[in-house]
């Protein structure tokens, strides 16, 4: 068994395993906890954590299927979408472990919390490092990666102002002590997200150039 074949098998196993774990955790939380307690189903899918877990799971499954079929040269769009998913899930882990350390998460089943806030962010980062993108990511792609979080933040702020409901306390002036604090926190997150996106791009380009350009045989993943 060649090194490339072994690497491909490991990539497939990691991606399908992580996706299955994420989907199982989110389904359990929704069906066994969220709905029985009378919480809104649409609200469940408003959380950036859940949306990011869904996206990375889809990317993992699609990329694993591509590898199973022997396709190891993804398009530029595939690489950009994969990078976006990695940035978003890494951001989930970063924010949860910095800005949300004091937030009451008693409504989240402990093992589910571990999966969506720790395991999947770690899986996304490890996958990006072990199997970096085969195509160089242009700087302009980082701008596209910023669009969805910006839209999400704007929509969350508007929804909180209109209904009083918020997924995260930093979107509520009542929760954090005024609109000035909200603006400051959102500003910090935007800057942090931009730096994270630039970092993911830089790591992907550097590791991709180092690994794929020196391998003569088809590589494991893209």
State the share of residues found in helices, binned by percent.
Answer: over 70%
Average of the residue pLDDT scores: 91
What would you call the quaternary organization? Answer: single chain
Task: Write down how many β-strands occur, each being a DSSP E stretch of 2 or more residues.
Answer: 0
Major β-sheet, in short?
A: none
Count the helices. How many?
8
Total number of domains: 1
Parts with pLDDT < 50 across at least 5 consecutive residues: 216-220
Distance between the termini: 20 Å
Q: Give the helix/strand class.
A: mainly alpha
Percent of residues in β-strands: under 5%
Overall spatial form:
globular
* Computed CA radius of gyration, to the nearest angstrom: 19 Å
Following the backbone from N to C, one meets helices and strands in this order, namely HHHHHHHH
Structural notes for this entry:
This protein is mostly helical and about 220 residues long. It has one domain. Helix content is about 75%, strand content about 0%. It is built from eight helices and no strands. The protein has helices at about 5-35, 40-45, 50-70, 75-95, 110-130, 140-165, 175, 180-210. Helix 4 (about 75-95) packs across helix 8 and helix 6 packs antiparallel against helix 8 (about 180-210).
